[in-house]
Amino acid sequence: MSARAPLIALKDVRLQDGSVMLFDGVDLALEPRMRATLVGQNGAGKSTLLKIVAGQIEPDGGERTIAPSTRIAFVPQEPVATGATLRDYATSGGATAWAADAALETFGLDPEKPTSGLSGGELRRAALAKAFAEEPDLILLDEPTNHLDIFAIETLEAELQASRAAAMIVSHDRAFLERVTRRCFWLAHRQVRTLDQGFAAFDEWAAKAEAEEAERLRRLNKAIERETYWFYRSITAQRTRNEGRARELEKMRQERGRLLKDKPRELELQMESGALSGRLVADLKQVSKAYGERTLLKGFSTRVMRGDRLAIVGRNGAGKSTLVKILLGELEPDAGTVRLGSGLVVAYLDQSRDLLKSEMTLWDALVTSGGDQVLVRGQPKHVAAYAKDFLFRENQLRQPVASLSGGERNRLLLARALAKPANLLVLDEPTNDLDMDTLDLLEDMLADYDGTLILVSHDRDFIDRLATSTIALDGRGGAVETPGGWSDFTRQNPGFFEAPRIVQPKAPAAPPKPSALKAQAKLSFKDQHRLKELDALMPRLAAEIAAHDKALEDPDLYARDPKAFDRAMQAAAKARETLAAAEEEWLALEEKREALGV
Q: For domain 525-595, which architecture applies?
């Protein structure tokens, strides 16, 4: 620990929420200019502990000491902007107008912009600008990277590293924490352990501590087993009770009970892809899309194949969600063509959480058709049991969604998305508000998922671990696809996101003489004709499959006409087989055409 006097310290802090003990003997200290992270599972009480440090909540016991004249700035998980303009909001905590304007502009915001109608990213950047403008001695940040794009996160990293303020940060963003922290506070079992190293050393340290805890429990179980045997053997043999031995045995049993009670529940994450989609998922050719005068895509082509793990990155507003909707066939491009593969079954986790209405209960959100059963990967499961898999208590089932924390709402969306088999999984900002243990489980699940994944995220570490290719959008119509994740993209495309410099055009070169032109290779007449046939055939087959599937949805068809049911099943299977073969042939011809440069 540092020899410097702390700005703020907690000693033996305790806090109880109803019958639940949140903290029982928390000790921590922050010295000037120390940047620390507070790590713990969702529900451990990280946000509550930050509020105790900030002085917003009084603990039930223990001491909170703070150095005289210490200024604290606190950015909560869900900030609320007040005042007419962003300048009004940024100065509401005592910052000067010039400091507020400078901080807002650093985070890419206009000080005159109204506070009404802000996006999630704009609100987060405004709250961060307000905190830095106040020039605090200690800045407390609760999930500061939520809704920020990668570039705003890098700005926040630079501001923290340049600031003279100490910082205490709750975040799930590993890359961010590795860059800015020098101490880790680990909140577990209602207490805090301290590591005087940055977050890069946390995983190894925590794994060692958990192994020691498991070994302690194993030895305690052995000791209880041995002591129980000798205790009752003594009673039988001597007919006398050793009261000291009885008290020791009861003490060990209580200790074991505490350790087992403190052992965190694990999230149950499973995903099934169900029926295979066609080999082709989506094929975009020379696609363009604009809104008014703003061009988001200009002549972009890509092909998504079954099993791909595609990440889409770019600044907020660059068109990432627009590209996803085009890939799914939900949005028509202004120009170009989009071909979707066959047999696609889509599960979509939307960052806006529009599927969750604030007035609905957790029960309503999971059982959308009524009753008390959730159909989980084709098997009925009671809603309480399924909710428990995602760490929800039974007494939460009738609570409104509005009362859930950000992490709980994201877990609820995961529960809905993962219940049904899907061979195309679209995750739009899935890491917001999730703790690192949940993110690790999500990564493990996605690594085993044999369907196709489209991932929109600003979490650089998450992208690097999962993506097989990355599409970057610059917000000006430019788009580049690179194999690998974020690190691979930035290494191969330096300066891609920077605005282009204006260069005086050179005089056009004289065209080559006809004699110098090489004869251009092209598809044979037979191949061209076959491509046209396949272009017409595949939509017909897809429509035929849809018609058979609709007929098979009739629950009474088999009882009413078994032969018609069998004919529909066989026809649908044959059409799917024919379509798969047609897609394979179409892909081979397309690859041949592209190789010839036609």
A: Orthogonal Bundle (1.10)
Q: What is the pTM of this model?
A: 0.75
Q: Are 154 and 497 in contact (CB under 8 A)?
A: no
Q: Give how far Cα 217 sits from Cα of 194, 210, 220, 223, Å.
A: 22, 11, 5, 10
pLDDT (tens digit per residue) in 298-332: 999 999 998 899 999 999 889 998 999 999 999 99
Reduced to 3 states (helix: H, G, I; strand: E, B; else coil), residue 342 is: coil
- N-term to C-term CA, the chain: 67
pLDDT tens, 225-284?
A: 666 656 555 554 444 456 555 666 566 566 556 555 555 556 667 767 667 778 889 999
In this structure, which topology does domain 8-204 adopt according to CATH?
A: Rossmann fold (3.40.50)
Q: Are strands 166-170 and 72-75 parallel, antiparallel or unpaired?
A: unpaired
Cβ–Cβ under 8 Å, residues 197 and 205: yes
* Neighbouring-strand partners of residue 536: none
Domain ranges of the chain: 8-204, 217-262, 280-492, 525-595
The SS3 call for residue 54 is helix
The answer to whether 8-204 and 280-492 have equal CATH topology is: yes
> What would the two tokens of residue 363 be?
């029960």
